[in-house]
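I wish you would study the pair of lines that follows with an eye to the fold:

===
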Amino acid sequence: MSLPSSPVMGAFTGIQWDPMQKLRLTQPEKLLLRSGEANPIDYTLSNADESRAYVKVVLKVLAEASGASGPSSKVSHLKGMLPDEEALQLLYTDPMGVVTHYAITKLYDIIVCLKEKKLGSDVSIGATFYNEEDGNLLDEWRPLLRVLHLGGSGDAFAQRGAAYCLAHILMAGCPSQRFSTNRSLKINHDSVMEPLQALISWITSQLQSSASSSLSLVTPTLTALVTCPEARAMFANSGGIGYLSRHLRNGAKGNKTSSATVQQLYELCFCLWTITYECNSSAMIRATFVRDQAVNALVDLVSSAPREKVVRVALSALRSLAQCSGDSSPSSDSSKKEVTGSTFLSEMIGCGLIKYVDQMKERQWTDPDIVDDLNVLHKLLHENFKEMSTWDVYMAEVESGNLEWGFLHTEKFMKENARKFEGPDSDFSVVKTLVALTASHDEEVQAIACYDIGEFVRHYPNGRVIARSLGAKDIVMRLVDHTNEELQRHALTAVSKMMVSNWAAVH
């Protein structure tokens, strides 16, 4: 990730530290800042002690400049790059806004420089941002979190940069990253967990919005965080899979509520793919993938094919789910069905992935990863399909919510399988799902759900009473005046079947 330049970057060379009393800088701290400006960043970070001292001063500048009063009055609202003259004017009208951007830019440069150091170097993110004595995270990190929670509309540049820097600082303290830093450095991993949870909570709060601007704040940070197993698990436990799935589903269908760009869809899908690697070790994460309908979102992406790179990572995620196993981490709840790769394959079949994979295999792909993923998915899907009864396929389709006209939605199929609508627990869960699907955003799905409910009423003994008790009549009745003529026709027919005891005689 490359942090976009600050809109007021042209003012940085005009910053004078002596007049800025609000920053409460000592003379040695001012000298250190001037030295950092006069020399290449790699020289400033040449040894661990000097690197830590410089970082502490930059973080102090950020702490004093950003304050607790919210975003700056002018700089925080800027969108595009200002000419140098206009940027320099802001040093007089909004000096703390300029200095906040300066500090964020410096911290980003520091992180990039330290990341490029050789493995095992004495100067690293861990050696710079963690105390040598007790291995704890430096207390000075807190202004970064405060910048994320600026009031009002915030400061997009500062928030994006602060989140990215904080992510790399915290990842350096995670147990899985211990081999990427100096072996002699002892880091207290416990000092990282609370700040990491705070960062992830901020990310999930931004993902609750469908705005592209909110996504642009977090996707660079999230794509970095998901390379760390501890962060992946924490994000999944914080509802992250659901947020990602919703954005991907809306983006794939071109939903008006989604403003995600193709690049953002790729980054969000990449994040979901990396989390699939936690499935083998976590029954909870496997169950969450099912609960949050992640397979639906991924199949929607494959079918809409926004760009080849998005399709590639979506297929990789589907393959990872199809091949996952619960052997090393069985569910602790014996009353619930174990979620494994077979579970996900059934969902994929219900979403119609077989058709898309068969079609895609006919195309010429230049990317060998896509070819390999298609071959593996084709084999697994067809093997699983052979073991499924037509009722299993129907159940998978209904549970996926992706209903399509075909043999499964005919009088013959419904008549032969009417008794199976009871379900293993005699709770008619399939009928409940069909009733819920009459409120789908897809009008064809609504029409098919109405048809299936009407056929259930016809062929199941006392089906009319059961459908009414589940609220089907009132809900379907609302669709009788729908503007879509096909949906209107199926809704009217379904309501008629619920009201007439001998439909065959009337028909």
